[in-house]
Design brief:
This protein is mostly helical. Helix content is about 30%, strand content about 5%. The protein is globular, with a radius of gyration of 19 Å. The chain starts with about 25 loop residues before the first helix and ends in a 20-residue tail after the last helix.
């Protein structure tokens, strides 16, 4: 499924670096305790555990406290882009008058990074050579959108979203058997262990708590699927489509779980 050789640094710009951020996600976003966050909090209100240096006071205890919302969250590098590139001399803590704009721009950059993530995955695939020129153009436009604050302000997110979705839909059709845009039925806590899935379409599916232990998943599409507490222990996910680090962080796995080459094994997986 993958073109060789794969670029080991393909996703470097989309890896989170909390040390280079200012804790934007822990202040800008809405949190719900029921979703595995430490508190119910409104968007724009800092988490009670956020330190002045932008780091988390309880980060080393997230697994012990079962704060799955914090564990699975991944901004795809949007935080450090906003902190280091767009507002290098004005963090939201130091300039409260710019806080709302910084938070708003963070959400925009996160959406742009999501599009980049999926499109970069597409560039790794065989059989989509006719789409590469459109993908390359889109990637260039998306990256140019956050060169500075003015570019971000003037970029058309709806246009970029629409064009990205066209690409993702076409790639999904080529790789997923009976791919459909229709909403999928929820499949909570389903038993799929020790099975083989080939070109199966799980895009946008609710698979919360399902069991895929020791299963073989070949060219399976997980675009936008909810994988919270899905058990992939011993499963082969190497050739799965459109998996994100956040989805993997939300799932369960172990050292025998085989991941796509662009994803990292969560520290919580034993």
């Amino acid at each position: 499924m993958y073109k060789q050789p794969l670029d080991p640094h393909l996703m470097d710009d989309l890896l989170i670096d909390c040390q280079s951020c200012s804790g934007i996600c822990c202040a800008a976003l809405y949190f719900s305790k029921i979703d595995g966050f430490p508190q119910d909090k409104k968007a724009g209100v800092p988490c009670v555990h956020l330190c002045q240096d932008g780091l988390c006071a309880i980060h080393s205890d997230l697994t012990k406290r079962r704060l799955t919302g914090c564990i699975q969250y991944d901004c795809l590098g949007a935080g450090q882009i906003v902190t280091q590139s767009l507002y290098p001399k004005a963090t939201w803590q130091e300039y409260p008058d710019k806080k709302e704009r910084i938070f708003s721009d963070f959400v925009k950059v996160f959406q742009l990074q999501q599009m980049r993530w999926y499109l970069l995955q597409c560039t790794c695939l065989k059989g989509i050579e006719d789409l590469l020129s459109d993908i390359t153009l889109l990637l260039t436009e998306i990256k140019s959108a956050f060169i500075n604050q003015e570019c971000l302000k003037n970029c058309s997110l709806p246009n970029l979203h629409e064009r990205t979705n066209i690409i993702l839909k076409e790639v999904s059709r080529r790789f997923s058997h009976q791919w459909s845009e229709r909403p999928k039925k929820p499949m909570f806590s389903k038993k799929f262990d020790h099975q083989q899935f080939v070109e199966t379409d799980f895009s946008m599916s609710l698979l919360i708590g399902s069991d895929f232990k020791n299963s073989q998943l070949i060219r399976v599409n997980f675009l936008g699927a909810d994988l919270r507490q899905v058990d992939f222990s011993g499963a082969n996910l190497y050739e799965c489509l459109f998996l994100t680090q956040g989805q993997i962080n939300a799932a369960i796995g172990n050292q025998k779980t085989k991941l796509p080459p662009y994803l990292k094994r969560p520290d919580s997986w034993k």
